[in-house]
Amino acid sequence: QVQLVESGGELVQAGGSLRLSCAASGRTISTYAMGWFRQAPGKEREFVAAINWSGRTTYYTDSVKGRFTISRDNAKNTVYLQMNSLKPEDTAVYYCASRTIYSSISSSPGDFGSWGQGTQVTVSS
């Protein structure tokens, strides 16, 4: 089982930028599709972005398209989420996840077998 640790979340003003990192350990994630999800208080966990094993294919939820970029560095066993033009509605705990045995992308939380502990992103008005 792969262990995932997110970092980079903090308080930022609207319009600002953050880069989240997801460091994997325990096993390589170089053959696995990866994803970012977020959960705001009182809401269900929401898909944000996903990337296939090679990084050549990405997918985003409409609300972040054009503002967020998911990327990966398989040599470093790390996945990133660059977040630009942040809005207060982006405030949430952001989670990194791995499909573990699949290389193709998915937006369904149930398709991801390993999850990080989350990192808090707060965007002020």
Order of helices and strands: EEEEEEEEEEE
Radius of gyration: 13 Å
Count up the helices: 0
The percent of residues in helical segments reads: under 10%
Stretches with pLDDT under 50, minimum 5 residues: none
Strand content: over 45%
User: What does the overall shape look like?
Assistant: globular
Topology summary:
Elements: E1 3-7, E2 11-13, E3 18-25, E4 34-39, E5 46-51, E6 58-60, E7 68-73, E8 78-83, E9 92-98, E10 114-115, E11 119-124
Describe the structure.
- The structure is a single chain.
- The chain has strands at 3-7, 11-13, 18-25, 34-39, 46-51, 58-60, 68-73, 78-83, 92-98, 114-115, 119-124.
- By secondary structure, it is an all-beta fold.
- The strands form 2 sheets. Strands 2, 4, 5, 6, 9, 10 and 11 form a 7-stranded mixed sheet that branches. A 4-stranded antiparallel sheet has the order 1-3-8-7, with no helix packed on it.
- Strand 7 and strand 8 form a beta hairpin.
- It starts with a strand and ends with a strand.
- The model has no long low-confidence stretch (mean pLDDT 95).
